[in-house]
Amino acid sequence: MNPSILVVYRPAAGRYTAQFRSVVAAAAELGVASVVLLPTGWEAPEADGLPQYHADLDDTAAVRAAVATIVAEHRIERIFPLFEGDVLPASRARRDHGIPGLTPDQALNFRDKNVMHRRAEELGVRVARSCRPDTVTAVAEFAEEVGYPVVIKPYAGWACGNTYRVDDRAGLDRVWGEMGDDRHEYRVEEFVRGTEFHVDSLFQRGEAVFEQLSQYTYSVLEYRDEPGGTISRKHDLSAREQRILELNAVVLRGFGLSTGVVHAEFFLLDDGEIVFGEAGARAGGGSIVPAIEAGRGINLAGEWCRLELDPEHRPEARLGPEVGTEYLSSGEYGKITAITSAAELTALEGVVDADVWKRVDDVLAPPTASNDVLGWYVCEGVDFEDVKARFKTVRDSFRVETEA
After folding, report:
1. Cα dihedral sign for 66, 11, 116, 293?
2. Which residues face 208 on adjacent strands?
3. Helices 17-29 and 300-309: crossing angle, nearest 10°?
4. Which residues, 6+ apart, have CB-to-CB distance to 15 below 8 Å?
5. Strand partners, 384
6. For the chain, what is the HEC assignment?
7. pLDDT in the model for residue 161
8. Higher pLDDT, 211 or 163
9. 37-59: per-residue pLDDT in tens?
10. Strands 186-190 and 195-204
């Protein structure tokens, strides 16, 4: 059998299409075929011509069974899960069949926030104080100790789904009722006040071969109130910003990463202290990948594939201007009757890429997660403030009309 890779791919709303295509193209360049594992009932035109299998991707046993079938029919060299929730099942499938890559022990450092924060502490990296929500009294006592607000989140969640900011005891009682019998799936953290950054890295054999620091322009928890934006910090980094990059390397090595791609988040406090937030062993979500591609000339997912398959490969990234990206959102809900197109957005000065996921006749409802948006755009500028000003220009130009 010829060598192949397995791509675990969820073709939802176009969020991972470019990543999928880049992984498949990178493998093909190296003479390696691609096999695709899709969610049950889904089709992906971009996977036409490739061997396709289906499984309930939210059922680890079903994923492992599907991979067992696949490896019996194909010589799988690597497994590439593009979505956060597929990282741990993919690691278990690797272990089942002796496929190189992130192991379950290592994957837990990137998926289970209880494990993640404990390991970061062992590495000497500061994290938010936390507690387990065993009882409402335990959470109330913790909140009194660290001060409201506190954050209640799934220990293995993503995109702020089912994540709550709790500002007082009344809010805690309300959230406690919403959690119901599932409180064992949550953790409670102090609310960290600071500027939030993220680092998108490519590692090979335990060393960073690409890293980019970026700063969020909003609080991730406030996704219902403002569009999510992030702007690169490539030029004239401060000593504190440089320290974030250093701590990122400490965390990723300590988590056991050898070769792969990681999106990690940190908070810079007013007193200069740095607090580790979390890290995912996958390319950044939303429009981070196209923003880095526009600004640095590489696709993180495609480069991850090349690094896994070619030990001698090194990303050839350019430095370029500062680049920012922002989600497209709207306060209008109902059936869409008109919406600004991606072509209209890219015609604006400074906008280098855009994608609008929603179309006329789609129905808009209030968002339930930070990536529950209408699309995104990427623009460039001379510095952070210039890019941020361009955000406002684009936001003011984006129009959505709806009817009940």
Report:
1. positive
2. 203
3. 30
4. 285, 286, 357, 371
5. none
6. CCEEEEEECCCCCCCCHHHHHHHHHHHHHCCCEEEEEEECCCCCHHHCCCCEEEECCCCHHHHHHHHHHHHHHCEEEEEEECCHHHHHHHHHHHHHHCCCCCCHHHHHHHHCHHHHHHHHHHCCCCECCEECCCCHHHHHHHHHHHCCCEEEEECCCCCCCCCEEECCHHHHHHHHHHHHHHHHHEEEEECCCCEEEEEEEEEECCEEEEEEEEEECCCHHHCCCCCCEEEEECCCCCHHHHHHHHHHHHHHHHCCCCCEEEEEEEEECCCCCEEEEEEECCCCCCCHHHHHHHHHCCCHHHHHHHHHHCCCCCCCCCCCCEEEEEEECCCCCEEEEEECCHHHHHCCCCEEEEEECCCCCCEECCCCCCCCCCEEEEEEECCHHHHHHHHHHHHHHCCEEEEC
7. 72
8. 211
9. 999 999 999 999 999 999 999 99
10. unpaired
Judged on CB neighbours under 10 Å (0-12, 13-18, 19+), 319 is exposed
Q: CA–CA separation, 182 vs 251, rounded Å?
A: 30
* Residue tagged 């922002």 (tokens): 326
In terms of Cα–Cα distance, which of 290, 397, 401 is closest to 354? 290
pTM value is: 0.92
- Reference 1, options 52, 72, 69; nearest CA is 72
Note the pLDDT tens digit of each residue in 198-245. Answer: 999 999 999 999 999 999 997 665 555 556 799 999 999 999 999 999
pLDDT in the model for residue 118: 97
Structure tokens at 262: 């990681």
For residues 378 and 343, the answer to whether their CB atoms sit within 8 Å is no
Identity of the residue numbered 274: I
Residues present in the chain in total: 404
The amino acid present at 341, given as its one-letter code, is: S
Q: Where do we find the tokens 């640095």? A: 296
